[in-house]
Amino acid sequence: MEAFTQAVSILDATLRLATPLILAALAGLFAERSGVVDIGLEGKMLAAAFAAATTAAVTGSPWIGLGAGIIVSVLLALLHGFACITHRGDHVVSGVAINTVVAGLAPTLGNAWFRQGGQTPTLEAEARFTGIDLPFAEALADVPVLGPIYSDLISGHNILVYVAIAAVPLVAFVLYRTRFGLRMRAVGENPAAVDTAGISVTWLRYRALIVGGALCGIAGAYLSTAHNASFVRDMTAGKGYLALAALIFAKWRPVPVLLTCLLFGFLDATEARLRGVELPLIGAIPGEFIQALPYILTVVLLAGFVGRAIPPRAIGTPYVKER
Amino acid sequence: MAGRATLPRWVDIGLIPLINLSLALFVSGIVVLIIGGNPIRAVGLLITGAFGDGQMVPHGEAIGFTLYYTTNYVFTGLAVAVAFHCGLFNIGGEGQAYIGGLGVGLVCLYLDFLPFVLIVPAAIIGAAVFGGAWAFIPAYLQAKRGSHIVITTIMFNFIAAALMVYLMVNLLIRPGQQSPESRAFAEHAVLPAFHEILGAIGIEVARSPVNLSLVWAIVACVFVWLFIWRTRWGYAVRTVGQNTRAAVYGGISPANTIIMAMLIGGAMAGFLGLNAVMGEHHRLLLNFQLGYGFGGIAVALMGRNHPLGVFLAALLFGILTQGGGELAFEMPQITREMVVVIQGLVILFAGALENMFRPRIAAYFLARSERTQAAT
Amino acid sequence: MVVAAADGGERAPAVELIGIDKRFGAVHANRNVNLRAEVGSIHGIVGENGAGKSTLMSILYGFYQADRGEVRVRGQRVRVTSPREAIDAGIGMVHQHFMLVDPFTVLENVMLGAEGGPLLARGREEAARALEALEREYALDVPLDGVVGELPVGIQQRVEILKALYRGADTLILDEPTGVLTPQEAEHLFRILGALRDQGKTVLLITHKLKEIMAVTDRVAVMRRGEMVADRETAATTREEIAELMVGRKVLLRVDKTPAKPDRPLLAVEDLRVVDRRGVERLKSVSFQVRAGEILGIAGVAGNGQSELLAALAGIAAPASGRILIDGQPVPAGTDPHAMRRLGMAHVPEDRLRDGLVPPFEARENIILGYHDDPRYNTGPLFDRANIRQSCLQEMQAYDVRPSDPELPAANFSGGNQQKLVVAREVERDPVVLLVGQPTRGVDIGAIEFIHRRLVALRDSGKAIVLVSVELDEIMSLADRILVMFDGRIAGEMGQEAADERVIGCMMAGVGPEEMAPEPHHVGAE
């Protein structure tokens, strides 16, 4: 029973840790499937985290905070589009620029406005997204096995966790079952085909970036107003890049994105527990190894030794009509 | 194809970077205004911060710090620039510098039976080998397996960070100490600071961390310049960067050239360890490289991947880093991160948005040269 | 489908282009072009490379906007500023490079841009029904659920035609549709085009192959240097007349040369095979010899293995099997271009800007490409810059490269001067064998003559030259012996004296000498 409780608690943590990865990776999915490299997930998430925490602290409403986070993230996505789509700039350089500007700007503004060393004030409970109990959670808690799974693992998360989970089938639906999804997949593979079919490549890519920006905004807001109660300097701590790794690992497909993010979240959740634990044959696994494992796995996959991650064909190349 | 407009050189390497920098500073000025500071005063404080006021902060000390930061930026800027010439975006300067510093540290910790004149070259080799090795794997995967080097170098930054924490916490930490730092290096296993060297010949200069690495940074700039424009290997690097098919036609192996360029880039980043570990901290510790790898991208873009440009851009960022630190001290609403904002804006204007101004400027100069030709 | 116009029952033309003018910078791609295509006809548009055919059709399809002129569809003036508007006006286009999304199915490709609503489900059913009807009507045999990237090229082209028809195209533009097809596929395509015409559709067929024009079109328009120089009933004209109109004046390439005095073989190729990355055999067991003092011309329609042959000989592509011997010595397997050069193989590549030059590099940097580690150009680890500049200047003067400025980037020279730069570099290294691909593509007349003279001079100095060109005139006037390639094989061989354009043309089209008709596939009156 002890092991079971332990497992439920690890999986519970997995879900919480995977949430921002899922949202950010899905955000990246929109950008990259439309042919725009999105190194800037980190920066957009960080900016959204800052905007959400700041706005929630001032207004006392997590929803207005979420809105602010989404707006800021979408604006940065539009900047990315302005550089990469309109001016055919280098996608990676633009992403790095966004990440760098935000990494500097968020603590600078935070410090100027709140004088807490770049941090935002701790949010009251009503200014945050707190856990919501699903119906009958309490009543079912004592049912063996299924009870804890329902009331501890499935119930009790904040709304954004459920949003992230629900986003996966939604994104899959949009991608594979809608006109927008069809065109977006096409423009990432062969923009000329889209152009000659009478569809604007530019506007299509901008729309994909806007959707991605919004998802990334939710991911950022989750970090500062749901998972934590304030913005702290560099609070994304590489999660944007990890989401990018997950996206590649999932070969740019929504359901594998969910599974990969859960795997990465699981590694994160177990890291603290596995630290120093002696395992048979292997010995003690260093926590740092577990931390580095998602990155190592991604490199191995990219190397093509196990499977092959083939990106959308037109990714990273600006669309220029041929003469 | 034929008759494409070529910009006058001074416009290409002078005016355009200047416009980009001005824009970045202009936007930064707006940020300062937003947070309630006076941008003009901020610039004044920044400059005194970078060069000293001669009273509270001696000139020597401030300039020394500025040059110390400059040295770091030169190395990581070159790391990005060399790869750029080969058409590669090396985002991995951060990790390569980190591991390069590890190489320096290991030499200084375990080879300190060597005399100073031998330990310095040993440390240089250590930095180059470790930094290069960290660039090698992404380079190999790009060259032979087609794995996108941007993604792999990012991954390697994180792997480097995890590796260093593991090594420092578990293996290299000085016994009985809390913070993850190694023991201090032996006295002859460090690079002397300029104030010490100058002091030895009787010139008194205020203490600062600028050390012999600055000389090595200048050597590295000259080396990169010679390598890229004066040797057949640099020729191969540029050919692969500009036209891979022509390289293949010309008997140049793109795979080998990519690996060579990244090895040199990684070595350049690794040299940061000389400055930070062997020159300044005199011990191995965590995060001595933090931010310079990404700063190097701004430096390379601003310096248009030319070693002289890289040096000047590094100097600029050295000034901003040192001046920014002092500025944050004087104006509490401004933090050191303001420098990062400027770096980001430089990357934005000089890199991502370079196509926004260049065609317009080119059109202007083309029209002008046509007018002058018509007049004669 | 035939619409009768009010004025006396005369039918309004399906498409009418009036006074179309278009410039790209200094290039005047279309000059005051007029074209009138009747409903229910196949209208050919012929012209050499760069005559302005593709530009004209791209204007009709809304890909570019004309600087001047107007477009009329069935008598109505229309503004076509985007492909969308062209589609709405009933115009469809099958591009030379297919505009298909490889990982998509046929159905998804056809639906793209005509999905029939924000959700795909309903549109998918409708599209499938409509496509099956279209397939039956026009004998377009296409698997709707097949992934396009995995289908043969001929089928992919049918997908493009289906796309246009599904969007309700009445006028279909095909840009060089047979360049990538096998003869059987081309035959099938022409049957489809015939069916389209019979159903009242209008076809605009861009091509440079006269045989196709004569075989399938009702009318033919000829373009030359951006101008429309003729528009005739196909039945009332001859191949010779169209050819003359295309080239303008009869340019008889007169290359002053003495009969070849072939000596020992300098290059021998034995059973050479090249397999591409997708596993397709591009060169099928090719064998031949080239002797000292001889120019061997290799004729053929582009894409029949000539490029692969050159690549294999230059060491760029590794042969799957077979042997190459230079001056009797076998070339070891795995020899790269660098080692090939050392064995005496020089190479003027088919595409100078993509392969032979680094456009942003200065002339003096381009003059050492492939020879950059020659001891002449290096002192120790560093370049001998004075020497490089000096030899660049010498070669530029010797080959009349204008301007003779070693510091000028290659991109800033004209096509002819770029080519002379490449020829200078390769010929001046005194090779044993010179490989030359399309030496005069996009090159002005003066430079053509110059380059031809140089090649003959190299031959006369006792070297072996392999000349690959799609310009039959060039092969016939320059080569001492001619091989014709078709479908990765050598389809025939003949000496210069015996060379007959008609025979070579048939070989290029894959027609063996024994099955040659007196006058192949001629439709209409003589």
Could you explain the architecture of this structure?
- Chain A is mainly alpha-helical and 323 residues long.
- Chain A is built from 13 helices and 2 strands, in the order H-H-H-H-H-H-H-H-H-H-H-H-E-E-H.
- In chain A, helix 2 packs parallel to helix 4 (91-114), helix 7 (159-177) runs antiparallel to helix 12 and helix 11 (239-249) crosses helix 13 (287-303).
- Chain A is globular and about 65 Å long.
- The N and C termini of chain A lie far apart (70 Å).
- Chain B has 2 domains: 9-53 and 306-366, no CATH class; 91-290, no CATH class.
- With 376 residues, chain B is mainly α.
- Chain C folds into 2 domains: 15-247, 3-Layer(aba) Sandwich (Rossmann fold); 265-354 and 432-508, P-loop containing nucleotide triphosphate hydrolases (Rossmann fold).
- Chain C has 17 helices and 22 strands.
- The longest helix of chain C is centred in the first third of the chain and has 19 residues, at 120-138.
- The radius of gyration of chain C is 25 Å and the shape is globular.
- Classes of the chains: A mainly alpha (323), B mainly alpha (376), C alpha/beta (526).
- Chains in contact: A-B, A-C, B-C.
- At the A-C interface, helix 8 and helix 9 of A face helix 2, helix 3 and helix 4 of C.
